[in-house]
Amino acid sequence: MEKLGSIQFVALLILFQVGSYVIFGFASSAKQDAWLVALLSMVSGLFLTLIYYAIYALYPGLNYVEILRRTFGSGLGGLLGACYLIAFTYVAGRVLRDFGELVTTFILPRTPILVVLFCLVFVCYYGLNAGIEVVGRVAEFMLFLFLFFLLTQTIFLTGSGLANFEFLLPIAHDKKAIVQSLIPLGITVPFGETIAFLMFYNQVRRQDMVKFLLMFSVVGAGLVLMSLNLLAVAILGPELYARNIYPMITAVQQVSVADFVESLDALIVIYIGIAAFFKITVFMYSAAVGASSLFRLQEYRTVLIPLSVAVLLLSTFMSKSLPEHVFIGLNWVPWVLWVPLFIILPILVLGIGMFRTRGERGHVEAKNR
Amino acid sequence: MWKRKTARKHQSKQHAELLNTEKLKQQRLTSSLQDNLDSLKDLFGHSPDLITRPFPGGMVLCIKTIVDLKRMEESVLATLQDGLRLDKLAAVELFRVQDQGRAVQELLEGSVLIFQQNAEEAFAIRIGNTEHRAIEEPQTESVIRGPRDGFTESIDVNLALVRRRLKTPSLRVEEFNIGEVSRTKVQLLSIEGITSSKLVNEMRQRLETIRIDGIMESNYIEEFIEDSPFGLFPTIQNTERPDVISAALLEGRVALLVDSTPFALVAPLTFWGALQSSEDYYSHFTVATALRWIRFVFLFIALLFPSIYVAITTYHQEMLPTNLLLSVASAREGSPFPALVEALMMEVTFEALREAGVRLPRPVGQAVSIVGALVIGQAAVEAGIISAPMVIVVSITGIASFTIPRYNFGIAMRLLRFPIILLAGTLGLFGIVIAIMILMIHLSSLRSLGVPYLYPVSPFSWQGLKDAVVRVPHWAKNRRPFLLQSPSPLRVPAGQNPEPPIQTPQSDAKGGTDT
C-alpha cells in the first residue's frame, strides 16, 4: 500500500477543506457575521474530526468500510459502506459541476460545459492512476503555490483600498441567521466532509502523528476561511456578499492596481481549479478505496474508469441549471446526505465500538479473574 | 501468431551464436605455434592489419593499427632480439594468455601477443596507442569562472581527470564491458563511505542486464537504465565536465564513464538539479541564488508565454490593461490568422531555425539565424502576415529556453510548448491549468534511481532546499541530500561562517589617535 508523508497528508486536508469555500462563499446568509460562523464551524469541525479519529483509534489500520463491517456485520455494514461510496461519488460530481458552472460563467462562456467537466475528470483520473502518493506530492507543491496566491490576493485587495472594515459591524447582530447557517451547513461542509479521509488514515506513514495532523489542518483551514470571509465582507459589504453566488470572485474582480493588475478573475479560476481538483480527487479516491474493499478487489485502480465515468455523468445530469444546482446543494443535500452520514452514523459507530471494546475488556477481565 | 513466435525464437538463437564469446574461451591454445596463429588469423578473417613478426624462438602477433608502433619497436621487438626473457621485458601490463577468447580480447585491446614454439600459452603486453583528442574546454557547458578541462573520447583520460580531483583511495571504479560486439568499457564510479551501497547496487544491477550489440554513445546506456523510459524529462544527467562528476560523487551520487564519448552520466538527477549550472558553485552565493531564480522565471516563460499570449488574446482580453489591449489589438488587426495558428507557425519556424543553425557549419549557421530571425521576422510583420507582438513573444520564449543550463531538459520544455499552445487555443487559461496539472502529476510521479524527481520541494526537505531553491554558502551546506541515504550524511561541520576578527586594525588605529 502506498504511504503518505505527514506534509502530504496535511496539504491534502487543507486544500480539501479550503477548496469548498473558494467556489461558493461560506455561510453567506449570515452576512457580516460569516467570519464568526467560520470560527464556530471550525470549533465544531474539531469535535467532528476528533470523533472520526476516535473511531479510527478503536480500529487502527482499517479503512472506514472495514470499520463499518466490523461494527454492523458484513451485510448491514456493507450496505452502509455502499451508501458512503454513493455519497462520495455524488459529492465528487457536485464539486465537479460547481467548478464547471464557474468556468463557463466566468472564463469560457461559449464552451459546452461537458468539455470542461471532461477535462477536469480526466486530470483527476490521471492523478489517481498515478497513485495517492503522487497526488499527495502534487498537493504538497500546490499548497505553497496556493498560500502564495492567497497572500498576493490579500495584498492586492487591501492594497487597492477597497476594504472597508466598518462593514463588519455590528458583530453578531442577527443571531438567528448565524445559527441557521451553522446548522447544518456550517458544521458539515468543509470539516464534516473530511470523513472521506477516514478511508485512508491507515495510509499515513507516521501513524502516531495522525491526530496532530488532523487538528493542525482543521485549525489552519479554519483560520484561512475566517480571514477570507473577513476580507470578502469588508470589500463587498454584507448585502452584496449575501446575494452573490460567487462572492470571492466578485471581490477579486474589484482589484485594480496601478492600471496594470486588473480583473484577476481568470487567475482566481486557476486556483479554484487547483482546489477543485484535490477535492474531487480525494472523494474519488475514497470511493475507489471503499469500493475495492467492499468488493474485495486487489487494486483500487480497476474501478477508476467506471468511477470517473459515473462522476462525469452525475455531474452532467444532476441538475438542469445553476440555480437548481445551488438550491439542491443548499437545502436538500445537507439534510439528506451530510447530517446522517457525517454526524449521526459516525457517532453511532463510535458508540457501538466503545461499548464493544468495554464489553470485551470486561469479558477479558472476567476471564482473568 | 505462432509463426511469428517461432521466428523470434530462431532470431534470438542466431543472435546468441553470433555474439557468443563463451565458446572461444573454451578453446585452449595448443602447443603448435602455427596452429595458434592460423586459427587466430581465421577468426579475424585475415585482416590486413593483423601482422606477425618472427623472433628467435617464436612469433609476435598484433593489430598494427591500434598498437603504439614506436613502443612496439623499442620495448618489445628490441628485447626479443635474443629470445624471450620475461625479466628483460619492460612492460607495465603483462598477461598470460591461455585460451583463444582471451587472446582475441587482448589483441583488440591493443596488446602484442608473444607466442613461443611448443608452449601452450602466450604472453600479452598492452601497448595500445593512447592517442586522444587534447583536453579542451567543454562545448556544451561553458562557464565564465571555473575549470576549463573537459572529458575526451578516451575513458582512461576521463578517469584520470576525475582521479586528479578526488585524491582518495575510496574512489571505487567498477568496470563493465557492455555490447556484445562493441565491448564498450563502462566504468561505474562511486565513493566508498559516501555513496549509499543501495544506489551502487541498483546501478550495477541495471548495467548488468543490458543486452545490446554496441554502445556508440552514453545515451544508449541512459535509455536502458532510466526509471521511466517514456517520460520526456531526463532523469539522468549527462555532462562533459569532470568537476561536475566529482561534485556529484561528493554529494553521494553515482557516475558512469563511457568509453568513446566525452559525455559521462550522473544519477540520480532531480528537477532542480536539471536547472543548475556548475557555475552556481563557483560564483558568489547571492549571485548564484539570483541566477537560479531568474532561471525559474524564464523556465515558466519558456514553457508558457506563447500559450498565455494565445489564451489572453483569444479568450480573456479583459485581463489586459486597456492601453496594452488597444496596442495589441491594433497590431493584430492586419494579420489574417488567429493567434493560435500564428503561434504554432512561428514556434515551428523558430525550432527549424535553431535546428538548421546547429547542424550547419558554425559561420553558415550564424548567417542562417540572422537571416531567419531578422529578415524573415521583419518581413513577415511588414507584409502583414504575422503580427508584431507574436514575433516579440516567440523571441522572448526562444531566449528564455536558452537560459536552461541542461540541453536535454530544455528540449523537453520546448516540445511541451506545442501541446500547451494547442490547449490554450481551444480552452483558454483553463486549458493551460489542465496542462499544468497534468505536467505536475507527471513530474511528481517521476523518479530517478528511486529518488522523487521534485525532491526536495515535494517531498519537502528543509535541508535539501538549501541547494535547490537557493544556493547557500559552502560553509552552510552541512548535509548531503537526505534521500541519497549517504552513510556519512554530514558534509561540512557547522559553525564555519567567516567573521571579521574581533579586534580589527582599524579600531586599533582609532584607539591610538584617541589617546
UniProtKB/TrEMBL annotation, chain A:
Q: What is this protein called?
A: Spore germination protein KB
Topology of the protein relative to the lipid bilayer: Multi-pass membrane protein
Residue ranges spanning the membrane: these are 7-28, 34-59, 71-92, 112-129, 141-165, 177-200, 212-236, 268-291, 303-323, 335-355
The record ties this protein, via InterPro entries, to: Spore_GerAB
The Swiss-Prot or TrEMBL record describes its family as follows: Belongs to the amino acid-polyamine-organocation (APC) superfamily. Spore germination protein (SGP) (TC 2.A.3.9) family.
Q: Which NCBIfam families match?
A: 2A0309
Which BP terms in the Gene Ontology apply to this protein?
spore germination
State the UniProt keywords alphabetically: Germination, Membrane, Transmembrane, Transmembrane helix, Transport
Pfam families recorded = Spore_permease
Q: Which organism is it from?
A: Tumebacillus permanentifrigoris
Compartments reported by the entry: Membrane
GO CC list = membrane
Q: What is the lineage of its organism?
A: Bacteria, Bacillati, Bacillota, Bacilli, Bacillales
UniProtKB/TrEMBL annotation, chain B:
Keywords of the record? Membrane, Transmembrane, Transmembrane helix
Pfam families membership: GerA
Q: Looking at the UniProt record for this protein, which Gene Ontology cellular component terms does it annotate, in alphabetical order?
A: membrane
Q: Which domain of life is it from?
A: Bacteria
Q: Where is the signal peptide?
A: none
- What residue spans carry the region label Disordered? 485-515
Please tell me whether the keyword Membrane is annotated for this protein: yes
Where is the chain membrane-spanning?
A: 293-312, 386-404, 416-443
Its Gene Ontology biological processes? spore germination
Q: Which family does it belong to?
A: Belongs to the GerABKA family.
Q: What is this protein called?
A: Spore germination protein KA
